[in-house]
Design a protein that fits this description.
single chain; 473 residues; alpha/beta; Rossmann fold; UDP-N-acetylmuramoyl-L-alanine:D-glutamate ligase; Protein-Tyrosine Phosphatase, Chain A; 3 domains; 6-stranded mixed beta sheet; 32% helix; UDP-N-acetylmuramoylalanine-D-glutamate ligase activity; ATP binding; Mur_ligase_cen; cell wall biogenesis/degradation
Length: 473
């Protein structure tokens, strides 16, 4: 797409209300476009409609009318979660009308250099961490995007003196054309969201769009331990700054001595940045990083690489790495009850995220898992379940599939919770059952390995119900 001012006097359709849709509609309306907002939900389910109608923006609720998309429409901006097979999107593509997400609109508005962060797991933690690192370095970050504040809203507030730190999903990136972050980071790639993308090829291609418009003046931060990330190297024009847990890098942020995959030990390790001239700079001992788990060490490495690429002083990095206690629903400590520790990891919406959580603890685990069925077998969980998990409590569409994985791992205590009626009551019952199965010194961990939408409106709702159930034990 072009700058919003290009659309003055032209018809623009915004598909989907919610926060981002409202902000996009306002931006395009203020630029002089003739904006129509369409949402398939009924009017009473769209509380935002009255607000934007008062501005003179047309709102159509309750379905997608036949003539919504026509030859006179110049642009379609869709909510990232709306699939590409819905009729308005298909019609726009048929007519050659650009179909973009809010990210593309915000990019053309934003005066600040952008940092784009994506990956299957760890996006929110890394984005938040980068914001804290840049703040400690006095670099005036604004954290926005998939993490909370709509990007269009934040972009209008930013100046060239800020850094815009943006968490990005594959859904958002798929709808970009010219988006070019000054620094782009791909944390990792796991099999997920295939119900939306249809294939891993489309999912990876959507993630890779983060780098497609970068030039040699930009920086690409890549996980050197992830084979999919490394496979993108030939297609990236930007300067590549890798991070690694498992390799000593000639340039990049890495762990010294490196971790050996599959080997657990108690060696003292240091996070080190090796610059382009080969000089090494110690950042922080690994055991001083506040968040538990090797995957959070990887998130810390990525965060440091991004901050260094942005120009942060290396001496400013240790403080936020030591002080940061994480974000809600990401391996979040909830409470100790009778010697049992309860953790909320509701954001673990795929098997890889749950595997990473399970390997973060040495104490026996009672795992609560299950959720939306996206076609996975969950056999990927078997190695982590063995020897770490003493029992599982399962609910949601995938409970039988995960039960089979638990059986393959040799678990004897497998409990299936009935969730046919009330989702909150089912999760509360799961927490009570997990508490019964746990002994002093154990951990009860909610780490579903699945999206929430079969039972809950979001992983956040699921996590908060879990926490409430724990506090009510």
């Amino acid at each position: 797409m072009k700058h919003p001012e290009f659309y003055r006097g032209k018809e623009v359709v915004v598909l989907g209300l919610a926060k981002s849709g409202v902000q996009v509609a306002k931006v395009m309306h203020n630029a002089g476009a003739l904006v129509t907002v369409n949402d398939k939900k009924e009017r009473e389910e769209c509380p935002e409609a009255s607000e934007i109608e008062a501005l003179g923006i047309s709102v159509v609720c309750g379905g997608h009318p036949e003539g919504l998309i026509h030859q006179g429409v110049s642009l379609l901006v869709k909510n990232p979660g709306i699939p590409y097979h819905v009729p308005p999107v298909l019609k726009a593509q048929e007519l050659g009308i650009p179909v973009v997400t809010e990210v593309e609109v915000a990019y053309h508005l934003c005066s600040a250099p952008m940092i784009g962060i994506t990956g299957s797991n760890g996006k929110t933690t890394t984005t938040t961490w980068v914001g804290k690192l840049l703040e400690a370095a006095g670099m005036s970050p604004i954290v926005a995007g998939n993490i909370g504040t709509p990007l269009c809203e934040a972009a209008q507030e930013a100046s060239e003196h800020n850094w815009m730190v943006v968490e990005l999903s594959s859904f958002q990136l798929k709808g970009t054309e010219e988006y070019r972050p000054r620094i782009a980071c791909l944390l990792n790639v796991a099999e997920t969201h295939l119900d939306y993308h249809g294939s891993m090829d489309d999912y990876v291609a959507s993630k890779a769009k983060l780098f497609s418009n970068q030039t040699t003046e930009d920086t690409a931060v890549l996980n050197w331990d992830d084979p999919v990330c490394r496979s993108l190297v030939p297609y990236i024009k930007a300067h590549i700054l890798p991070f690694s847990m498992n390799e000593s890098l000639r340039e990049g942020v890495h762990v010294v001595p490196p971790y050996l995959p599959g080997v657990e030990d108690e060696l003292s390790r240091m996070v080190v940045y090796t610059d382009s001239k080969g000089f090494s700079h110690e950042i922080i001992p690994v055991d001083k990083i506040a968040l538990p788990g090797q995957f959070n060490v990887a998130n810390a490495l990525a965060s440091c690489a991004i901050a260094i690429a942005a120009g942060a002083n290396i001496s400013a990095l240790a403080g936020p790495l030591t002080d940061f206690r994480g974000v809600e629903h990401r391996l979040e400590f909830v409470k100790d009850i009778d010697g049992v520790s309860y953790y909320n990891n509701s954001k673990a919406t795929n098997s890889k995220a749950t595997n990473m959580a399970l390997t973060s603890f040495t104490r026996p685990i009672v795992l609560i898992a299950g959720g939306l069925d996206r076609g996975s077998s969950y056999e990927e969980l078997v190695p982590s379940l063995k020897g770490r998990v003493k029992s599982v409590v399962l609910l949601g569409e995938t409970k039988e599939k995960i039960a089979k994985a638990a059986e393959l791992a040799g678990l004897k205590q497998i409990v299936l919770v009935d969730n046919d009626e009330d989702a909150a009551a089912a999760l509360t019952a799961a927490v009570k059952k997990a508490a019964e199965l746990a002994d002093q010194g154990d951990i009860v961990l909610l780490s579903p390995a699945c999206a929430s939408w079969d039972m809950f409106s979001s992983y956040a709702v699921r996590g908060r119900i879990f926490k409430e159930a724990v506090h009510n034990l």
